[in-house]
Amino acid sequence: MSCESPLHTHAVHAGLYPDPTTGAVITPIYQTTTYAQEAVGQDKGFTYTRSGNPTVAALQRQLGALEDATALSFCTGMAAISALCLALLEAGDHVLCSDVVYGGTVRVLRQVFERFGVQATFVDTSNIGAIRDAFRPETKLLFIESPANPTLKLTDIAAAASAAHDAGAWLAVDNTFLTAAGQLSFSFGADIVLYSTTKYIEGHNTTVGGAVLARDEAIVEKLRFVQNAVGIAQSPFDAWLTLRGIKTLPSRMDRHAKNAEEVAIHLESHPKVARVYYPGLPSFPQYDLAKRQQRDGGGMLAFELVGGVEAGIRLMNAVKLCTLAENLGAVETLITHPASMTHGPIPAEERRAAGISDGLVRLSVGLERADDIIHDLNCALSASTTASEKNTS
Ligand SMILES: Cc1ncc(COP(=O)(O)O)c(C=O)c1O
Question: 164: CA distance to ligand 1 center in Å?
């Protein structure tokens, strides 16, 4: 896998230009609700910030330019996922979704969209045969997360795209874990790409945001309508912070992946670690697929400890440099307990069936020195050893 994203130059410049009124090199924050119109029916392209704002427009141009698509920005990742469903689906339609996805995605499909007559089925999308078998005549959308939150399970995007297209459905890929710097989903046949920009794209733990990208103008138009009609666009200030984040996205992603690989290799050899899930490790069951469709292993990993749930919880309570928190993809290393935090909305039985064990620990490896992260984990692993474990070791 190569070590440097081809997007370094693009991330600094693509879709951006000096502010036309002042020449400001950095797009200003247009913190305004409304825009003076020259005469009735004559405006300068903006009328009201829910419908359009120059800072948000700059973010959309840049996100789109990175993937040769059109992007629309939303106030959260969940708003982006909801906008996609509102734009493309209607009562009676069916969605096929990966069985391992962010818990909020399961919650919105089951507890919101099902109430409006959109059915969802969750299937192991790492198994292309299972995907093909699960399509129904009314299936309009195949929604996958690859790598999936939190087990990093992958879906073969090209195979999923051809299964979706054979069934007359669209393929949407939630690429939050890798971003365009790590995986170009459109090049494998995706119709729609989604992001929680809250994560790596903004990258500094300062905003929540989301984006939906598409190349088909008909899909873009439907999304644009929903963005305005429902009123869920990104705010100018959060758009500005996200624009700032994108400039360093490829550099951060390179470093996140390098650090994550070092941490994963270390954890894999640690006697207290039972299993490590990281797509950049040769031991990862889908390592070959990762090499084919990802630039590198990414910055996320998960692991299980010898000693299961109790040991995992003790570790998460003992770390000092790593912060126990929801969120991922920020400069700080964050450690998360999916069963009680990010994947709490999924019923326990289903969670376990999808491989999200109660003891699974998720690590979003930050930009600190890899040795410091490893040292913190080592200290927490020894501090969290129980007296009985010490006696037997
Ligand atoms: C893969 C993935 N998609 C979507 C979301 C939702 O994003 P947000 O929290 O910005 O609404 C998350 C949140 O953790 C996520 O991990």
Answer: 23
